Amino acid sequence: MTNQTQSETDGTESANPTDEPRAGGTESADPDEDTATDDSAEALGVLDVRELVAEVSETLLGHPFDGITAVERADDDGWRAVFEVVERSAVPDTQDMIGRYELHLSPSGDVQEYSLQQRFKRSELQGSAL
User: Fold this and answer.
1) Coil/strand/helix, residue 122
2) Mean pLDDT across the chain, nearest whole number?
3) What residues does 111 pair with on adjacent strands?
4) Distances from the Cα of 55 to the Cαs of 11, 13, 29, in angstroms?
5) Which one of 38, 66, 86, 105 is least enclosed by Cβ atoms within 10 Å?
6) CA-only gyration radius of the chain, Å
7) What is the rounded CA–CA span in Å between residue 1 and residue 98?
8) What pLDDT does residue 27 have?
């Protein structure tokens, strides 16, 4: 994961778009090591998912990333993350429009789906409550 994270931050995030798995199973030439497909879910931790969500959210939605409010394992051993982006900047920033999105990732970190959960002004209290 470290090599991929470094290459993504260097601006070469899709050097080989055919490589679907983001962690585990692809670096080994030993066929016995590739048989443990459940290990790929273990390869991504909460911090890895948090970093990945921060990286893909702006590209995915075209709005600046603002923060992550939740990261948890999904029922299918993938990941579910809730994050926020600034959909419209304003002055003062308390009037920014924030979009809260839910993102589902496969066990290997590939984006499966996302959806808008809520839209609110930064100053609205109900936006910050889950």
Assistant:
1) coil
2) 75
3) 105
4) 11, 10, 29
5) 38
6) 17
7) 30
8) 38
Q: How many residues are recorded in the chain?
A: 130
* Residue numbers of the chain with a pLDDT score lower than 70: 1-42, 125-130
The DSSP result for 32-78, as a single string, is TGGG-TTHHHHHS-HHHHHHHHHHHHHHHHSS-EEEEEEEEE-TTSS
Q: Give residue 116's domain range.
A: 2-128
Provide the token pair at 108: 């290997």
Rounded CA separation 75/88 (Å): 33
**What is the domain count for the chain?**
1
Q: Are 92 and 118 in contact (CB under 8 A)?
A: no
Three-state DSSP at 9 gives: helix
pLDDT in tens, 29-67: 444 444 444 444 457 899 999 999 999 999 999 999 999
Cα gap 72→51, rounded to integer Å: 14
